[in-house]
Design goal:
The protein has 352 residues and is α/β, with parallel strands linked by helices. It is 46% helix and 7% strand.
Length: 352
């Protein structure tokens, strides 16, 4: 399998490409950071935040922005930055995947917004509907997480419209790690309806994803609101360098954000906010023959934390192992392993 000559990302990742030196487009996007004027970008961020602070005051609105929050390290850092560094008054919103969390993950989700004196709005989906969508996601897309990705993007937009809070603060821009549907790094990417359809929906509409026993109106929480409304949804990673390990150190020290071991990776702070992330990684392995360690090692190589040879050794050690969490996931969602494998493999480019 061909891999990037700089990181360890493989040719099977949708949207990846390699230049004449064999270096992937993700690495090339990250190299652009060197030429950014981060002081000017932070100045622009302060101007945006100041405008929406004043707007909230004039409209007698308690909240001057929305921060989507999963309890993971990225959203914890984004929330900490808005409150402690810039003095914002965010409404914290969580689209709850409703899977059972570990005690540490539950602490991160529920207690950290309280530590920052923030109001926290949590949307929880019914279990039967969630399970039906997980099964449908595997069938239609080879990814059981479609409903969560869509709810994370569409529900804040609905709140922005209904609660008159136009400003949303997101974390890393899509160009930082992704390829399919990603904007270029020099673009000041914003989350709008077009971005939602391109990255969140991944070309799959609610009609395509609707389980047989449900009505289209049941999909409302995962759909973009109708009509025009004011929205300014920006990515913090366009205004400051996005350095995950530094962020983990900050939220651990400042917020007592808790680490937890996750199957299939060599770090104890990535994707602790979902117990079935290893199952999604297993779907990636079945489809593309790489998983989380390939992704994490590639990030660490780009940041100069490990060598490419060390990354390849980590990939060999951790990727491609059937997770124990799969048994719990199958029992909870009512899928058989044969069904799970068949629906996932149907979407593998390696079988075409």
């Amino acid at each position: 399998m061909i891999r990037c000559t700089k990181c360890v990302m493989p040719e099977t990742w949708p949207g990846i490409s390699f230049d004449e030196e064999g270096i992937c487009n993700i690495c090339r996007e990250n190299e652009k950071e060197i030429d950014f004027n981060w002081e000017e970008r932070e100045k622009k961020l302060k101007e945006i935040l100041s405008f929406y602070k004043e707007r909230a005051i004039k409209r007698n609105n308690k909240y001057d922005c929305i921060v989507g929050y999963s309890g993971g390290k990225d959203t914890a850092y984004t929330l900490w930055t808005m409150v402690k560094k810039y003095g914002m008054r965010p409404l914290v919103f969580t689209f709850d995947h409703t899977f059972p969390l570990s005690p540490d993950a539950m602490y991160n989700l529920m207690e950290i917004p309280k530590k920052l004196n923030c109001d926290h709005l949590l949307f929880t989906m019914g279990t039967e509907f969630r399970n039906a969508l997980c099964r449908k996601g595997s069938e239609v897309l080879g990814d059981f997480c479609w409903h969560c990705h869509n709810g994370v993007g569409s529900m804040p937009a609905r709140i922005s419209k209904q609660w008159d809070i136009p400003l949303q603060i997101w974390g890393e821009p899509s160009a930082k790690y992704k390829t399919y549907g990603a904007d270029s790094y020099e673009d000041m990417e914003e989350y709008d309806e077009e971005h939602f359809k391109k990255v969140g929906q991944a070309g799959v509409t609610p009609e395509m994803m609707l389980p047989d026993e449900y009505e289209l109106r049941d999909m409302m929480p995962m759909t973009w609101p109708e009509g025009e409304f004011e929205l300014k949804a920006i990515f913090l990673g366009h205004f400051e360098p996005w350095e995950q390990r530094k962020h983990v150190e900050i939220v651990t020290k400042e917020l007592d954000w808790r680490h937890a071991e996750v199957e299939g990776t060599y770090v104890d702070w990535d994707k602790v906010d979902c117990p079935y992330e290893p199952v999604r990684d297993w779907q990636k392995w079945l489809k593309f023959k790489f998983a989380r360690t390939t992704f994490q090692a590639s990030k660490d190589i780009r940041e100069g934390l490990i060598t490419r040879d060390e990354g390849l050794k980590l990939v060999k050690k951790y990727d491609g192992k059937r997770p124990k969490a799969l048994d719990r996931f199958l029992e909870e969602t009512g899928m058989t392993e044969e069904e799970f494998n068949a629906t996932t493999l149907k979407h593998s480019p390696l079988k075409k």
